[in-house]
Design goal:
CATH class: Alpha Beta
Structural class: alpha/beta
Number of strands: 5
CATH superfamily: HUPs
Oligomer: single chain
CATH architecture: 3-Layer(aba) Sandwich
Bound molecules: zinc ion
Number of domains: 1
Strand order of the largest sheet: 3-2-1-4-5
Order of helices and strands: EHEHEHHEHEHHH
Distance between the termini: 50 Å
CATH topology: Rossmann fold
Number of helices: 8
Length: 224
């Protein structure tokens, strides 16, 4: 019997994955959140993830993924490398891209899910706010889904609620799920490790802020 009442959410502690967690909480009877410790620059991310799970009453598991940093150290794991402002013009991903990261995260979330008899795996990747990360694209997710099913002879279902929506719509979604304040105050997106509205200047903060301002503007204009 397929377990349709439970799901696994890949949770980084940022805006997108937390919005996905809220989304999953509404849709499933029980939700497990999985986070990964890969010695990221901001271990605070994991603290945020834990705090969010405590607040939402979600079972949380942190998996050790330090190996990833041994193999592919980059600007998200080392403080001596500055994060690229934008993706390079030659089409290569920005230096915040960690080779294989999403693939590894999804693989381990799938192993965790299968052990619990769960098929649905939710991840907050999005192709809309183009980050230049190849493993956030829909084609990769679909391919990964097929690969997982073949690898484990099991029917996984990778769900990406944010794939085709931008940051503004992500704020709207969090709000519609009753989690606007939670996402605004408790998540960490900032590359400088500042929770909530962040430093305001790094690429992640700028993207988040633009979306938030656009959402708030629309919201006020609708109500007035
Ligand atoms: Zn920032």
């Amino acid at each position: 019997m397929k377990n349709m009442d439970e799901a696994v959410v890949i949770l980084s502690g940022g805006q997108d994955s937390t919005t996905c967690l809220l989304w999953a909480k509404k849709k499933y009877k029980k939700v497990f959140a999985v986070s990964f410790d890969y010695n990221q620059r901001h271990i605070k991310e994991l603290e945020c993830a834990k705090e969010i799970c405590d607040e939402l009453g979600v079972e949380h598991r942190i998996l050790d993924m330090e190996l990833l940093n041994q193999l592919a150290p980059n600007s998200l794991t080392r403080t001596d490398i500055e994060v690229d402002e934008d993706a390079p013009e030659d089409g290569t991903p920005p230096n915040s891209f960690v080779d294989g990261r999403n693939m590894v995260f999804i693989l381990f979330a799938a192993i965790f899910a299968k052990q619990k008899g769960i098929s649905d795996i939710i991840t907050g990747v999005s192709q809309s706010d183009f980050s230049g990360y190849p493993d956030c694209r829909d084609v990769f997710i679909k391919s990964m889904n097929v690969t997982l099913n073949l690898a484990m002879d099991y029917e996984f279902n990778i769900i990406t609620p944010l794939m085709w929506i931008d940051k503004e719509a992500t704020w709207a979604l969090a709000d519609s799920l009753g989690g606007f304040e939670l996402v605004r105050e408790k998540t960490l997106t900032c590359y400088n490790g500042i929770k909530g509205d962040g430093c305001g200047n790094c690429p992640a903060c700028k993207l988040r802020k633009r979306g938030l301002e656009a959402y708030l503007e629309k919201k006020t204009s609708v109500h007035n």
